[in-house]
Design a protein that fits this description.
single chain; 145 residues; mainly alpha; AhpD-like; 6 helices; 3% strand; globular
Length: 145
């Protein structure tokens, strides 16, 4: 991603890109894609909603799940692991200070402690990147691929 405002700060742009790549390498891509798209829905980020993360075998999340994402609590397309991830992500985006011990325990149950660490780091990177691009867009400092 190129952001004209960062043209003079190549070290910052490089660090942001490296952190983004590391987050996707560490976290399970399907779960991080679920999180990315739900964050985009919650923040109202149409560019992120339109894009799909693609792995070696194609999209990491099927389109039926993408279509049902807003109704994840009642959709049969999401299992307990997906629900734990999405419940955490929603609370994280809305108010990180009120993420509950139960939500974290559910993540640990489904992902293990190292998996939670990798996943939460990925959520942090994805959410911050989206908030930055939304801010840049609103300021007229468009980010480009």
């Amino acid at each position: 991603m190129r952001v004209p405002v960062l043209d003079e700060a190549t070290g910052v742009a490089s660090a942001l890109a490296d952190n983004h790549a590391a987050a996707w390498a560490a976290a399970e891509p399907r779960l991080l894609e679920l999180a990315r798209l739900r964050i985009a829905q919650l923040l109202g980020h149409p560019d992120e909603l339109a894009g799909r993360t693609v792995g070696a075998a194609g999209p990491v999340l099927d389109e039926d799940a993408v279509t049902a994402l807003a109704s994840w609590p009642s959709s049969g397309l999401f299992d307990g692991r997906d629900r734990a991830v999405l419940a955490f992500v929603e609370q994280y985006v809305l108010d990180v200070a009120t993420v509950t011990d139960e939500q974290v325990a559910s993540l640990v149950e489904h992902l293990g402690a190292p998996g939670v660490s990798d996943f939460v780091h990925g959520v942090l990177v994805v959410e911050q990147r989206m908030r930055l691009t939304l801010a840049w867009q609103r300021l007229g400092l468009e980010a480009t691929a």
